[in-house]
Design a protein that fits this description.
Mean pLDDT: 87
CATH architecture: 3-Layer(aba) Sandwich
Strand content: 5-15%
Largest sheet: 7 strands, mixed
Order of helices and strands: HHEEHEHHEHEHEHEH
Low-confidence stretches: none
Number of strands: 7
Strand order of the largest sheet: 1-7-6-2-5-3-4
Length: 242
Amino acid sequence: MWKLRALLFSAPAIVLATILMGTISMICSLWDRGGATQHRVARLWSRILLACGGIRCETYGIEKLDPNRSYVLVSNHASYMDTPAVLSAVPLQFRFFAKHGLYAIPFLGWHLRRAGHLPVVRDDPRASVKAMSAGARLIAEHGVSLLLFPEGGREPRLQPFKEGAAYIAIKAQVPAVPIGLVNTRKILPMHSAMVRSGTIELHVGDPIETTGMKLHDRARLTEMLEERVGELVGETVERMRI
């Protein structure tokens, strides 16, 4: 029954909402080059997407975030529903890294580009460092927060974190905040376009201050973030034994 609902209602409604809100975001970008208005449009867009799929998002610990501060938000990544969940629930102006393929999607890609989000750079260490430095500058110059998924992509289980999020938080000297998303994998499984109704849980952990940390501390900070996100989602990273 849920497949019929997803096929006949959820999927068409999500596509229509993406076209409508993507168009509105494009129009807003004509007078707002900073992306603040587009971000508000994206929050509404995300709430519409969740509503179309019959999805509720319950938040825990959101009061730990000070709306007057900037953060690096660090979350696990299990589903394409992760970003809409964070957008709908976290009351901060933030930008995020998105993989290049999403920029090619009409309306969605146009929004990402005009709203000031950053493309993910893979397999090029020099370009990756430049992208991370750009993220730190974005925080410093515009007073926004930044969302990262340090596993590097959607994964069936929690994977070891890459150091990019810790690098940016330390370079910008802002707190790193662990976020745990639960049930997004069930709502929209990997390799599926069929959205299931249900409840997503978004857990916000205690911010980790980076004041005084140096870039050589990024491995230690990465390990702390990995452990705390794992605690929030009830998973531990399985590392290969040599």
